[in-house]
Fold this protein.
Amino acid sequence: MSNPLIIVNFKTYQDAQGHSAEALARVMESVETDARLVAAVSALDLSSVVKAAPNLEVWCQHLDPISFGSNTGWIHPDTAIARGAKGTLINHAEHKVSLEQVAMLLDQVPEGFEVCACAANIDEAKSLAALVPDYVAVEPPELIGGDVSVTSADPGIVSGTVSAVKETNDQVQVLCGAGVKSGQDISTAIDLGAIGVLLASGVTKSSNPADSLAELVSLL
Ligand code: G3P
């Protein structure tokens, strides 16, 4: 498998907000790898991160399928795109939305703007795959932020999601996440049929993000 996708979700981790988000993005930008690295940043940091790391692909963590107008506090896809977002997560375990909202967002974003819909289990992954996002990322909520990777704790959910998603629509690619921290975790994810991973704390809470990123891509 060449060019796996590695999405680092900055969430609202302190070391991945504001100026620290810019610094972390620059570290990601400097990683030497054939993998495709993406930073999913706070909407507040989108513009500054894009400016700070112009060669890094930057996504949103969430978007709302709304139009221009009276929508206080919501995040308009067009504005995010104008500010440099190339894709977004949606329905993350920490920001759940309805299937209808995912479908509306997919209808609204332009061709080429990538959407990764997150699922807590195989059934949800299947329902999301039917809406044909670019990616479905399966993340068991109980493993998020922990030290044990989904690829060791529950490899069956990864391979099961890959089978269920492919059966639903073979255009949709699968990522997995929760507890991913090492090159071995990514290598196992790929062996299980995923095309990459979605992770956060392995990088955002690391005392040395450059080393952690180097470890993550070490077996690719
Ligand atoms: O979005 C990625 C995430 O939910 C997994 O978090 O900290 O377990 O890598 P973490």
Q: What stands out?
A: The radius of gyration is 16 Å.
